Structures are given as structure tokens and as C-alpha cells.
Amino acid sequence: MTVPTKTLTAADVMTTEPVSLLPHSPIRELALVLETNEISGVPVVDEQQHVVGVVSRTDLVHYLMSEHEGEIHESFQYDPVEEDWTITEAVAGDIDATVEQIMNPEPVTVTAETSVPVIARKMADESIHRVIVVNRHKRLIGIVTSLDVLGVFPQ
Length: 155
Description:
By secondary structure, this protein is an alpha+beta fold. It has one domain (10-150): CBS-domain, CATH 3.10.580. The protein contains six helices and eight strands. The protein has helices spanning 10-13, 27-37, 57-67, 99-102, 116-126, 146-150; strands at 15-16, 41-45, 51-56, 76-79, 84-87, 109-110, 130-134, 140-145. The chain has a four-stranded mixed sheet. A two-stranded antiparallel sheet has the order 2-3. The protein has a two-stranded antiparallel sheet with strand order 4-5. Strand 6 (109-110), helix 5 and strand 7 (130-134) form a beta-alpha-beta unit. The longest helix has 11 residues, at 27-37. The radius of gyration is 17 Å and the shape is globular. The two termini are 25 Å apart. Mean pLDDT is 83; it is low at 1-5.
């Protein structure tokens, strides 16, 4: 007799209490949060922890490139070892933009009960690397990244 295996859910693989930012946070703070926490994106929440968006390192790089006519801003350096852009100490002080100006205001969200296969399908369909986990009140309770999803598959 085969014993059915439990289908893993967002609750099983999510990071609880993820780093988040408010919409009015300056992008200098975003750059520092991404670099300090070694992450590529964060949920954006209001004062009551309702999810209002998501912002990534890619959003930041695109914004800085558009502000500097297609040239990468001097605050960024490409690290060939990590094969990624490295944010030096902070984004230059002359840039006043806020997270709200560069965030995606329609983040992909799931509940804690959403199965990992459904999350993986959403990530593939939307070409994204993270989904935000919310409770029934749309408040932030966690985040699932593509690495979290890959970690559940056998080697």
C-alpha cells in the first residue's frame, strides 16, 4: 500500500517575517536593504502591513539606467564572479525617487495554503522569482522565492 505524501504549501517553505519597505522609502534605502540582506527583492507594504507592491534589484537597475540615458549609474558595478550587479554603499544622493515610483503595484500573491506546485507554475507563468504570501486580510506573512521552490525538489 502506498502512503500518500503531503503536498507542501507556502507555509512549509516561506520565509516568515521577510524584510519589507514602505512606499515612501527612498530608493537609497532600497539599495541598502537589498545589499545588506543579500536579497534581490522585497515586498512593499503600507503602515498596516497590507501588501501594496513588490520591488526588485532589476527594477532599481532599470530605473537608474533610464534616469541616466541608458548608462548604468556609477553606484552599480558588475561583479563577474557573482554574475550580478553589486550595489556599492548606496545609490547616489542626487536621486530622490521613492520605492513607490519604481515598484510593481500588482505583486503576485498567494496564501499560506497554496501548494508549492501551484506557486512554481505562477512563477513560471509570470516570469518572476518571488511570490508574496498574505493572510486573508492581504497582510504580509511571508515570501517564497524560486530558490525556496527549487529546494523542495529531489537532487
